Amino acid sequence: MSDGRGSILFVCTGNVCRSPYLEWGLRAALASADGPVIRLTSAGVAPLIGHPMSSYLLERLQNRGIDASEFRARALTEGMVARADVVLTASREHRGLIVRHMPSTATRTFTVLQFARLLRDRPSSGNGGADLPALVTLAQQSRGLAGASTEHDDIEDPWKHSRRVYARSAGKMDEVLEEILEHLVPR
């Protein structure tokens, strides 16, 4: 696990759409909000190793002043999972793969939408600004109360789909990042 304010590993399939968009989007949001320093990374369970982020999502970030052109896809490793304070996946399928392979990670592996939902269902005290390990503990405690994860906890995979699907997926990712940011940055 990481030092300081924590680390987040985002995981999707190819590591060219959802996970890098979440990684770079949260990085920029934390920087612009003068948020905590959190180590952010992403990887794929079936990565397109060395490929850049999807052009639609890269353009969407660039339109917000975020230059993610240096990003290149990489494969998920056990070491990445072991070093992360929390693993946030794009879908229940990704979470299941990780937990089946590394059962000890079950308590700190969530879909990103599930993580935000669990924090929303049991808000932290104060006006945000909780450290990441505290948020992970809060989500762990809430998971039993909130019931099992459902298809509503999956972010649609836009890979090789229409711009409309990319826009819908990116919109959902922007929403969930805003929710997570509210818990990490004091208001």
Features:
187 residues, alpha/beta, 4-stranded parallel β-sheet, 7 helices, 10% strand, globular
Describe the structure.
There is one protein chain. The protein is 46% helix and 10% strand. It has a 4-stranded parallel beta sheet with strand order 2-1-3-4, sandwiched between helices. Helix 5 crosses helix 6. It contains 7 helices and 4 strands; from the N terminus they run E-H-E-H-H-E-H-E-H-H-H. Strand 1 (7-12), helix 1 and strand 2 form a beta-alpha-beta unit. The chain has helices at 18-32, 55-62, 78-83, 92-101, 112-121, 132-146, 163-184; strands spanning 7-12, 39-44, 86-89, 109-111. The chain is globular and about 40 Å long. By secondary structure, the chain is α/β, with parallel strands linked by helices.
- SSE arrangement, N to C: EHEHHEHEHHH
> What structural class do the secondary elements suggest?
alpha/beta
Number of helices: 7
* CA gyration radius, whole angstroms: 15 Å
Shape designation? globular
In short:
With 187 residues, the protein is of the alpha/beta class. The protein is 46% helix and 10% strand.
